[in-house]
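Lab notes, practical 5.
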Amino acid sequence: MSTLPDVFTDPEDSQLVADAKKDKPEDHEFSYTERDVILYNIGIGATAKDLQWTYESHEEFAALPTFGVIPQFAASSGISLGWLPNFNPAKLLHGEQYLAIKSPIPTEGNFVNETRLLEVLDKGKAASVTTIVYTKDIATGNIIFENQITVFIRGAGGFGGKRSGKDRGAATAVNTPPKRQPDAVIEEKTSASQAALYRLSGDYNPLHIDTSFAAIGPILHGLCFMGIAGKHVLQSFGTYKDIKVRFSGVVFPGETLVTEMWKTGSKVIFSTKTKERGTTVLAAAAVTLADTDMMAKL
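Output from the prediction step:
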């Protein structure tokens, strides 16, 4: 039984976009084991000192919250964008990621992903496309994760329709850091082999490992350094029920990530930069902290 509507209709859509939204992708099944959870956790910097994240027999063994981007990855990456004018996959950039954790995260199981086109914006010289994915546990029917993935495709604009997106709450929040010193700061040096390790969780894009594909040298996966920053927030402020980031720069494996965090009510706004170059790599970022009742359930 479908949980998402068949089509996210919008009266402001051009006919091109309206027709594309009607093309319902097939559901995509995904299974993972405790080994996959450990591999992901290590891929975003967990170590042998963090037994709750790296040892399956630990009484508090768990997936780090941002593991929720993994089961949906093939489903969202596989959605067709060939209907866009002048579409060139080489000009696609991962712009933003929103992840909501809807239920306790199993450490193994079989899941199904439902994927839809949520929003398409004509930015003139580029297109902005947001896909939504629900990941459901096949055994229970529970929705475990919701992901919203926004990509920008340079040179694919000019097709008409809306230019500005709707307010989707935490998924589109601006998350401007307060003008005060951060409440917490964590630095973490990535490994020169970080991308080689993280790719084993499912993103095999050669851009992250093969120098012949990367003019500026292999770069770290955006979802990898999102996960590292998400780990910093978890370590500083505890469990959260959603996380949203905008990818604003690249990270080279071996660089040091600095995550600055500001608690504002139930949110923690954060920004991540590279220590060596001072480049902000995650912006407009925040988590919504889980309340105590939800934390007890988790």
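Observations recorded by the TA: The longest strand covers residues 109-122. The chain has seven helices and ten strands.
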